[in-house]
Write a structure and sequence with these properties.
three-stranded antiparallel β-sheet; 7 helices; mainly alpha; minor pseudopilin epsh fold
């Protein structure tokens, strides 16, 4: 069960193309900031004056809107970090080298015509999105979908769970790549831990 009380540690030591400084800012400052803000919102909701609720403006309305922004800021970043890199004390066989493997590859090929078709679509969506590209498994129709979201709490579909998440906000890559988002996306795929992605997929379909 997900808890917002504490931030998760990074599952890797380093990534191809990303400096220690960039990763530290992304995880220790930004991601952990969402965890803290979510907790702050929860505390304020305990004492908010519900009698002043109003659709034009009210503290309750603003807190509940930003609650979803902060919560998804936590969840999407965790989904992004969790599928990257070689685990700190793992062998090369453990994943994180970008080599596709597992049942999920066959499932993506079946859904998109080929694994390469899915990968091409995901990459170009990374160039089109302003915030996130998300491969989801939709429990409503039992299919994969690639979605993009310009904000944490926009673009999601009820009943769909993220399997693989790409962060294309500039904070994710600008320190190391400048405006070269395309190279960042290529390195993202080189850093993927397909063993971890496959394990998450199997848990989804066997739940």
């Amino acid at each position: 069960m997900k808890s917002y009380a504490e931030s998760k540690k990074l599952p890797f030591e380093k990534l191809k193309g990303s400096s220690e400084k960039a990763i530290s800012i992304h995880h220790d400052k930004l991601y952990e900031g969402y965890v803290k803000k979510y907790q702050e919102i929860q505390e304020k909701l305990k004492t908010v004056d519900k009698s002043l609720a109003n659709a034009t403006y009210s503290e309750l309305r603003e807190l509940k809107l930003e609650e979803t922004f902060a919560a998804n800021g936590v969840l999407l970043h965790e989904a992004y970090f969790d599928m990257l890199g070689l685990p700190a004390e793992a062998s090369a066989e453990a994943g994180g080298d970008g080599k596709p493997e597992g049942e999920v590859i066959e499932a993506l090929a079946k859904e998109f015509g080929s694994f390469e078709n899915w990968q091409e679509e995901f990459k170009v969506m990374g160039m089109a999105a302003r915030g996130w590209v998300i491969l989801v498994y939709d429990f409503n129709d039992g299919k994969f979908h690639n979605y993009l979201a310009d904000f944490h709490n926009q673009g999601g579909i009820w009943g769909a769970a993220p399997l693989l998440v790409l962060d294309v906000y500039e904070h994710a890559y600008f320190i190391d790549y400048g405006s070269d988002r395309k190279s960042y996306i290529e390195d993202f795929f080189s850093n993927l831990n397909w063993k971890a992605i496959n394990e998450k997929y199997l848990k989804m379909i066997n739940r």
